[in-house]
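Hi support team,

I've been running sequence recovery on a batch of backbones for a student project. Most finish fine, but this one hangs at about 90% for roughly twenty minutes before it completes. I'm not sure whether the input is malformed or the queue is just slow. I've pasted the C-alpha cells below so you can try to reproduce it. Let me know if you need the job ID as well.

Thanks,
M.K.
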C-alpha cells in the first residue's frame, strides 16, 4: 500500500502535521513502533482486515433517516495491540469523519480507498488494550462484489437490508473486516417510530423519544464482521422463547404473505442441535424482508436475513450456517466450501429427517450430471480460484456432495462424530480445510488424502475416490 490520502481536508493536513511534529519530538521513544499492515493478505480479498491488533468489542451507536438515507454513526472499538503500533488501519467505505480519537486523544487520520489510516498521538505498546472512537456521517454506499452481487447497506422502500459477505461491513461501520478477527457487538440504532431494527444477539432495550425509537441489540458471542446486520424497516416482530430458554426473534415484512415455513424454525434448530451439538448462540430468529433487488439470503449471526419469504430448504440452509460459518468460520475465503458445502448438505439431511428426499438421493441426482457439463463440475469446491467464483454453484453442490461421499465412505456413525466434533471443538473459532481433513482422518482411522483431493481440488467430475 502506498500512503496516498484522498479527499484530505485542511484539518486533516493540520492534524497530520501535528502528528509529524510529535513524531519528531518523540522519535527515540517511538523508534521501535511500526505501522500495522493495511490488509491480512487473504488470497481473494487481500486488503480486508488489517494487521497489528485484534478487536475485542464494537460499540455501534447509529441513527438512520430513511427519507434522506443519511446514517449518523459512532463506533467505539476496543482492541488489543499485537505489535508495538505506530499507526493502524480500519476498513471503512465513504462517510465524513468529524473526529477520531484513540484512548480519548484526538488522532490523525487519512483515507485511502477502503483504508482508514489512524495515527495516534502516542504509539500503542504490544499487548495494550486501546479504544478507538470514531464519529462518521453520510449516505452509506452499496458495495458491488466481483461476482456482481450487491451488499452493504442496501436501501429498501421502508428502510435498509444490511448484509456484509464478504466485504459489505465497511459500508456501514469502521471495522477490522476479516473473519479471523471475531468480536462481540453492541448495536444500537435510532429510527423513526414505526420502524423496527433487527440486529444480532438479544434485544437489550427499546426506547422511544420525540418520534424516534432506539433499538439496542447485544451479541455477546464472538462474531465475524461480515455477519453483523442492522436490517431495518416495517416488520411484524414475534418474540418467543424456544426450548431451553433460547429467545427467538422473527421479523417479517408485513407486505409479505407470512408463509408457514417460519413455523419450522424451532424444529430445524432442534434437529441440528441433535446431530451437530448444542446451538452455538444465545439467540435465534429470522429477518424476512422485501428486498428482491438483493436476491440472496445471508446467515447473519443469530438471525439469518432473507430478501423474500424463504422456502424450507433455504431456511434450513441459513440456520445450519449458525454452526458452520458463523460459529465455526473459515480463516481465509478460498475455504468457503466449509460454509456452503456444509449448509447445502444440511438442507439434504433436514429433508431426509422430514421423510422427504434423502441426502443420498440428492447426491445421486446431482452425480448424474454428465462430466461434459464442465460448468457444473468446475471449479473444484476447495479451490474456487477467485473472489468472483467464491459463490459458484460447485462450492454449494459439489461441496455438499463431498460430505455425502464422505458419509458413505466412513459410515454414518463416524461421519456424524466428525460433523459434531467439527462444530463443538471449533466453536467460535476459525478453521481451515486441512484441519477438517485431519479431523476426518483421525476419527475414521482412514487415509482420506486422496478422497479429499479428488472431491475438493481436482477439476472435473470425480470418478473414483
Ligand atoms: Zn450459504
Amino acid at each position: 500500500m502506498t500512503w496516498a490520502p484522498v479527499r484530505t481536508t485542511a484539518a486533516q493536513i493540520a492534524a497530520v502535521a501535528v502528528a509529524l511534529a510529535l513524531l519528531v519530538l518523540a522519535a527515540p521513544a517511538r523508534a521501535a513502533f511500526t505501522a500495522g499492515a493495511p490488509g491480512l493478505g487473504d488470497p481473494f480479498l487481500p486488503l480486508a482486515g488489517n494487521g497489528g491488533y485484534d478487536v475485542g468489542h464494537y460499540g455501534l451507536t447509529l441513527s438512520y433517516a430513511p427519507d434522506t438515507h443519511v446514517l449518523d454513526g459512532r463506533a467505539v472499538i476496543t482492541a488489543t495491540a499485537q505489535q508495538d503500533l505506530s499507526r493502524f488501519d480500519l476498513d471503512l467505505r465513504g462517510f465524513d469523519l468529524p473526529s477520531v480519537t484513540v484512548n480519548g486523544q484526538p488522532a490523525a487520520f487519512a483515507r485511502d480507498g477502503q483504508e482508514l489510516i489512524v495515527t495516534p498521538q502516542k504509539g500503542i505498546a504490544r499487548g495494550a488494550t486501546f479504544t478507538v472512537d470514531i464519529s462518521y456521517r453520510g449516505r452509506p454506499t452499496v458495495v458491488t462484489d466481483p461476482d456482481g452481487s450487491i451488499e452493504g447497506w442496501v436501501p429498501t422502500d421502508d428502510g435498509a437490508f444490511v448484509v456484509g459477505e464478504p466485504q459489505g461491513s465497511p459500508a456501514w461501520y469502521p471495522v477490522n473486516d476479516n473473519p479471523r478477527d471475531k468480536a462481540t457487538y453492541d448495536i444500537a440504532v435510532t429510527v423513526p417510530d414505526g420502524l423496527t431494527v433487527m440486529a444480532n444477539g438479544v434485544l437489550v432495550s427499546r426506547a422511544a423519544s420525540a418520534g424516534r425509537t432506539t433499538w439496542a441489540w447485544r451479541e455477546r458471542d464472538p462474531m465475524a464482521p461480515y455477519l453483523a446486520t442492522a436490517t431495518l424497516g416495517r416488520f411484524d416482530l414475534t418474540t418467543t422463547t424456544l426450548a431451553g430458554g433460547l429467545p427467538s426473534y422473527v421479523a417479517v415484512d408485513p407486505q409479505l404473505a407470512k408463509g408457514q415455513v417460519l413455523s419450522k424454525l424451532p424444529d430445524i434448530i432442534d434437529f441440528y442441535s441433535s446431530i451437530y451439538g448444542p446451538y452455538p448462540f444465545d439467540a435465534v430468529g429470522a429477518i424476512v424482508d422485501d428486498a428482491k433487488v438483493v436476491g440472496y439470503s445471508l446467515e447473519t449471526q443469530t438471525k439469518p436475513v432473507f430478501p423474500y419469504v424463504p422456502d424450507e430448504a433455504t431456511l434450513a440452509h441459513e440456520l445450519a450456517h449458525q454452526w458452520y460459518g458463523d460459529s465455526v468460520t473459515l480463516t481465509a475465503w478460498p475455504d468457503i466450501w466449509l460454509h456452503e458445502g456444509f449448509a447445502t448438505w444440511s438442507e439434504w439431511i433436514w429433508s431426509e429427517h422430514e421423510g422427504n428426499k434423502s441426502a443420498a438421493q440428492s447426491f445421486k441426482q446431482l452425480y448424474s450430471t454428465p462430466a461434459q457439463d464442465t460448468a457444473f463440475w468446475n471449479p473444484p469446491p476447495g479451490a474456487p480460484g477467485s473472489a468472483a467464483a467464491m459463490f459458484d454453484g460447485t462450492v454449494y453442490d459439489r461441496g455438499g456432495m463431498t460430505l455425502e461421499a464422505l458419509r458413505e465412505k466412513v459410515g454414518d456413525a463416524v461421519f456424524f462424530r466428525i460433523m459434531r466434533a467439527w462444530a463443538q471443538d471449533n466453536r467460535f473459532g476459525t478453521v481451515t480445510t486441512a484441519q477438517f481433513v485431519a479431523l476426518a482422518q483421525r476419527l475414521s482411522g482412514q487415509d482420506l488424502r486422496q478422497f479429499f483431493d479428488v472431491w475438493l481440488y481436482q477439476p472435473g467430475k470425480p470418478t473414483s475416490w
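--
Follow-up from support: It reproduced on our side and the slowdown came from queue contention, not your input. Residues 393-410 form the longest helix (18 residues). No action needed from you.
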